[in-house]
Write a structure and sequence with these properties.
By secondary structure, the chain is α/β, with parallel strands linked by helices. 34% of the residues lie in helices and 22% in strands. The chain has twelve helices and 15 strands. Strands 1, 2, 3, 4, 5, 6, 13, 14 and 15 form a nine-stranded mixed beta sheet that branches. Strands 9-11-7-12 form a four-stranded antiparallel beta sheet, with helices on one face. Strand 1 and strand 2 form a beta hairpin. The radius of gyration is 24 Å and the shape is elongated.
Length: 419
């Protein structure tokens, strides 16, 4: 079959059962305790999954290379010498109590795309390269999306090598120990385009009975940490109007963060995910409280407004209760906006294949965020049951996986045949 054949536009679909079998096979490596996976970056289990993945890639006739941070590139040649590759990928590492599909679907759907092209005898002008990015989750070695960040020039390689896990073990040492420190220069691959298929990790697509999410942008985020300092006192003998209660300051701040995000719904979210109180006893007024805040929005100006309101609000809360306070910005990432041409390829594929679809903003971080800095990029999402992810209960259905992989196939083809 050639790409001029009109049947290519609608009739070529991935092999649903083969994709599902691959997902189930790799899920046997690093099983969790409740049906999911524990395959953290650079563990023996990560190394074993990589080995199986490379075996499958070589079986599909792909040329495999590994860069200095362990990213795996598996390439199917194109018909034009020196043409830039169209890339697709995601990650094989998981959370400590992770699901079977977060990241893994994008890698193995990419492999299924290539197997389908082989089955149909379809050749492309541009090479097609499948990527497994190292340490996307950041659950063992922080930060998240580490290796794609190094690839995109956001982090120095030696800095990444020196990241340490909770036991003090260096990232670079573990990469060598499991045998996946390659020689290919990091960032040495130029791309024509990059596509990433992922489960939504949220409830919107399933709730609306939509097959495919076309990801137009990714939320920016800011993490703030705020300390309130009050005065410890006896809970029974200290009058309410004589207290300097740091816990009260924290409680008011939690309410404020929620209100600030709700005022901007649906274009923002705000979360207090961690609270620390001291002395943390039932019969003592709190002398100290620390509040960790996560705010996100796809609109950069809105993210800045939220941070400013939180800072101003914390100051007012402290003054009202008689507390001192400090604010630290722990992390900031600007919103990501994906390439219009790549978005169009994914949207047109969904339409041609007859899948319902809607534009969606990704609330979670993905390797495509960093890659969008160095190549035109887009993401495709499929639903997940109840929006549950980063949880061993994470679940999707074979037909959802197949629909996402079909759209990935045709979006990649659309770019791989163009000059």
């Amino acid at each position: 079959m050639t790409l001029s054949d009109p049947l290519v536009a609608t009739n070529v679909r991935i092999h649903q059962e083969r994709l599902w079998d691959s997902l189930m096979d790799i899920a046997t490596i690093g099983p969790g305790v409740a049906g999911g996976n524990n395959r953290q970056a650079l563990t023996d289990e990560d190394g074993e999954a990589r080995k199986l993945f490379v075996t499958w890639c070589e079986g599909a006739g792909l040329t495999v290379s590994v860069d200095q941070i362990g990213n795996i590139f598996a390439t199917r040649p194109g018909t034009e010498t020196n043409a830039l590759p169209v890339c697709m990928g995601s990650h094989l590492d998981t959370q400590p109590t992770g699901g079977r599909f977060d990241g893994v679907l994008g890698v193995l759907a990419g492999l299924e795309v290539i197997r389908t092209l082989n089955d149909q005898g379809i050749q492309t002008r541009h090479p097609i390269t499948l990527v497994n990015w190292t340490n996307e989750e950041g659950s063992r070695f922080a930060p998240v999306m580490m290796a794609s960040g190094v690839f995109a020039g956001a982090h120095p390689l030696e800095w990444a090598y020196d990241r340490r896990d909770a036991s003090g073990i260096r990232f670079g040492d573990e990469l060598e120990r499991i045998g996946w420190k390659g020689s290919f220069p990091v960032g040495g691959l130029s791309m024509k385009a990059y596509f990433e298929l992922h489960i939504e990790q949220g409830p919107i697509l399933e709730a609306e009975n939509v097959d495919i999410g076309i990801v137009t942008s990714g939320q920016g985020l800011t993490w703030l940490e705020i300390d309130f300092h009050g005065r410890s006192a006896h809970a029974g003998s200290t009058p309410m109007n004589r207290r300097h209660d740091a816990a009260l300051g924290a409680a008011r701040l939690v309410h404020l963060v929620n209100a600030i995000a709700n005022d901007r719904h649906p274009n923002a979210v705000g979360t207090v995910g961690r609270l620390s109180i001291e002395p943390n006893t039932t019969n003592s007024v709190a002398a100290y409280a620390q509040v960790a805040i996560d705010i996100r929005s796809p609109v950069a100006a809105m993210l800045e407004e939220m941070e400013a309101e939180i800072r101003s609000g914390a100051e007012s809360i402290a003054a009202e209760i008689g507390l001192s306070f400090e604010i630290r910005r722990l992390q900031h990432a600007a919103p990501v906006h994906f390439a219009p041409d790549c978005i169009s390829s994914a949207r047109q594929a969904a339409v041609a294949l007859g899948y319902s679809h809607r534009d969606i903003v990704s609330g979670a971080g993905h390797d495509a965020y960093w890659i969008s800095r160095v190549a035109p990029s887009a993401m495709i999402m499929c639903p997940c049951v109840d929006g549950i992810s980063h949880n061993e209960a994470e679940e999707i259905f074979p037909e959802w996986a197949a629909a996402g992989a079909d759209v990935l196939l045709h979006a990649v083809l659309d770019n791989a045949v163009k000059v």
